[in-house]
Amino acid sequence: DQQVKQNSPSLSVQEGRISILNCDYTNSMFDYFLWYKKYPAEGPTFLISISSIKDKNEDGRFTVFLNKSAKHLSLHIVPSQPGDSAVYFCAANNAGNMLTFGGGTRLMVKP
Amino acid sequence: NAGVTQTPKFRVLKTGQSMTLLCAQDMNHEYMYWYRQDPGMGLRLIHYSVGEGTTAKGEVPDGYNVSRLKKQNFLLGLESAAPSQTSVYFCASSYWTGGYGYTFGSGTRLTVV
After folding, report:
1. Closest alpha carbon within chain A to B99
2. How far are the Cα atoms of A37, A65, A91, A103 from residue A52, in angstroms, in the given order?
3. CB A49 within 8 A of CB A33
4. What's the pLDDT at B101?
């Protein structure tokens, strides 16, 4: 029973265009959502987060949107760059301090 | 700027062998975690610790044991390795998760043949 799902295993985007990565969750008790980025042979690194009381958080080229009624969040990258090519994991936090991760989406940004 | 260090980085085991994966952090974090990453499954929590001397089971604890004798170290043990434990293992640590998440190590790639 996956509580956090990323239904697209891969996404290909042209350099300069927008990348939109999606994530769905089932547990309404999650109070924080995070995105991690992972390059090959490295550990995941924290990218951006959003509290459940907000609907948008922006950090440079990265924006995360949260739709609580739909239990859906998305990560927008504008403009996409080749260096953004990586696996992106959506994660959700509950009050017990545990993160639940989605299956990941591999983003490929073509020059 | 060590952060979280995992050893070894690669290992091949025969079925039934045992081994210990070591995780060390130098950030004085209270919380430490062991995850495994499998294709399409994302990161699944094996065991975690909320402080020195404590451990708890995560989502997929069977076949693994852990110990946290010192605050900076978190050990993951496989007593009798099975091919199903072939995976990439990540250790992470955190002060808390409220918005800043975890600091991960670079992973250990384990193959059980």
Report:
1. A49
2. 21, 10, 13, 21
3. yes
4. 75
* Largest pairwise CA distance in chain A: 42
Pairing of strands A105-110, A86-93: antiparallel
Nearest residue of A to residue B37 by CA position?
A103
Cβ distance of B98 and A44 shorter than 8 Å: no
Given a contact cutoff of 8 angstroms between Cβ atoms, the answer to whether A86 and A107 are in contact is yes
Strand partners, B17: none
Q: Over its length of 113 residues, how does chain B's per-residue pLDDT go in tens digits?
A: 679 999 999 999 999 999 999 999 999 999 999 999 998 788 999 999 999 999 999 999 999 999 999 999 999 999 999 999 999 999 999 987 555 678 999 999 999 99
Residues in chain A closer than 8 A to B31 (CB atoms): 97
Nearest to A98 among B42, B48, B100 (CB): B48
**Residue that the structure tokens 């708890």 belong to:** B56
Q: Which residue of A has its CA nearest to B31?
A: A97
For A36-69, write each residue's pLDDT tens digit.
999 998 999 999 999 999 999 999 999 999 999 9
Contact call for residues A63 and A56 (beta carbons, < 8 A)? yes
- Using the beta-carbon criterion (under 8 Å), do B101 and A34 form an inter-chain contact? yes
Of B42, B43, B98, the CB nearest to A32: B98
